[in-house]
């Protein structure tokens, strides 16, 4: 087996040209088998890869209609790949949601390249990696945090309230009573009482990554 065959095979999914073209030169001990700007491109021609290095935000160039965040992680996991998130994102609830969607690790882009290379090796070996730059994420992931305790209906009503929709309007649209809508929001408020003491529902929605087009938004792509 030659040196090329012994290297870990990595496919890079990132909308940043510098990342796609630079990593093969910066990490020569890895064998970059593909470097694409979207999950759609990756899945259209699946590469030979031990690890997919995946950015979470893939619409930075203004593109629409591409999967990102948890939806991208899920798609890659369903295709049978191990995924290592490589991101600038620091919202812990968002990262936990993406780990829950099937990612095997998280590395922040501010970390040294040696940390990234080590994390790739760990994920390739079947282990889960969360690096020191994201202290506390492992503990939050273990107990699944507040995000996992929100039901789909609670998320829906939080999103509506974040847009300024009245409880009466929410109730009519969802075919529930106004009292039921208020009760769902009361549960959300109780779960995030400390945060909502100084922040709005829109702030909470953003912190949880649930806003339109955000990383845990499950709305259909346009």
From TrEMBL:
Q: Does the keyword Phosphoprotein apply?
A: yes
Alphabetized, the UniProt keywords read: DNA-binding, Phosphoprotein
Q: Which residues form the Response regulatory domain?
A: 9-124
The record's section on Gene3D superfamilies has: 3.40.50.2300
Cited SMART domains: HTH_LUXR, REC
Highest taxon above the source species:
Bacteria
Segments passing through the bilayer: none
Q: Does the keyword Phosphoprotein apply?
A: yes
Q: Which InterPro entries match?
A: CheY-like_superfamily, Sig_transdc_resp-reg_C-effctor, Sig_transdc_resp-reg_receiver, Tscrpt_reg_LuxR_C, WalR-like
Which residues in this protein are found as 4-aspartylphosphate? Answer: 55
User: Which Pfam families does the protein's record reference?
Assistant: GerE
Name of protein? Response regulator transcription factor
